[in-house]
Amino acid sequence: MERFGSLVRAREDEPGPSGEKHAPAIEAPDRVSPGERFRVRVVVGREVPHPNTVEHHIKWIQVFVREEGRPPVHAVTVDLGPVVGEPDAAITLKLERSATIHALAYCNLHGVWESSKRIEVA
Question: Is residue 105 within a helix (H) or strand (E), and if so which, with residue range?
Answer without folding.
Answer: strand 99-107
